[in-house]
Amino acid sequence: MKRFGLATQIFVALILGIIFGIVFYGNETAMAILAPIGDIFIHLIKMIVLPIVIAALIVSIAGVGDIKKLGKLGGKTLFYFESVTTFAIAIGLLAANLFQPGAGVDTSALKANDISKYEETMKTTGTPSVAETIVHLVPTNVFESMTKGDLLPIIFFTVFLGLGIAAIGEKGKPVLTFFEGILEAVFWVTNLIMKLAPVGVFALIGVNVAKFGAASLLPLGKLVLAVYVTMIFFVLVVLGVIAKISGTSIFVLMKVLKDELILAFTTASSESVLPRLMDKMEKFGCPKSITSFVIPIGYTFNLDGSSIYQALASLFVAQMYGIHLSVMQQITLLLVLMLTSKGMAGVPGASFVVILTTLGTMGLPIEGVAFIAGIDRILDMIRTAVNVLGNSLATIVMSKWEGKFDQDKANQYVDSIKESNVA
Prior knowledge:
mainly alpha; 20 helices; 0% strand; Na:dicarbo_symporter_sf; symport; symporter activity; transmembrane
């Protein structure tokens, strides 16, 4: 396997996982044997996410040191995130009107999946107001936020801790050195875990295909097609134009991130590529101070793929039940999604919870989401890859905006990739 790159290994694992799932469709014993392997891989990834986010942000912020510079970068970053995700939601709504994926779907022919756990989460969190979202940023107990994996309050605390370390000067240097060591050590652990990626992908895909079967896709094939076509359009046109304006190419970026995009796609987990993504963007010419700040925050605020999916899925449910939404109602839906997609960040099954909350707010039947549950994994794969690509591009845009992008370093890295592919 050493002669093959990680991307090739993962792709082979994906194909083998699909074959396994088809052969052992409905076989509970086979699924029970394989499921823990995939779960362990995802757990290993989740295990290293928080240490990386905390250490990277502290190293980044303490390195910047100047609160005015940080505030300027933060303001630009959030403005960019909000602009692009709002555009993504609008494209999702337009695509739903164009494709009409929910029209003519026979609900009696589909198996409604259990969404009780998502409904429970929705009831617990409710529909957050702007004030509640802002209040949620400030943790009452940062360790409690860590145990919940709630990134927003963790980021808030870490930003202040990084500023504090910078403010105390010489006394803060040992602490900064400590977190730099943590970051390097966790990156080493990440490289070790990534060697298991093909095995993890095989298990995750195999179990899902064995559980739902290829036949379960057919009644909802129109929705799958609509989501994939819209995502590809968004990447090539919207992100492509943004990349062109920022002086790079979306195709070059995809080539640089080939391994990470395939891994994110096959595992449906953006967390699985977080450490490697930060490392790659630094090699591609983005300074560590910007990379370590933009990417972790982007994992909460800049989810382009999820935004498109949530918009499409919301209108899909309305169309499935024959409910027509006027232009004004769809504009309201866009505004609701702008709020709920940010307010639900860090909640388990966030995309599902966002859709449920949005449907409840708009007075649409939330039970309609149950029909999507069976194919959610397939939809999650493409939206995760788009999220990863969007955050990578955001790092380049912010680096260029701050005038700190190293074009020579980027060119050298791209050339080294070409040479390794030839070899």
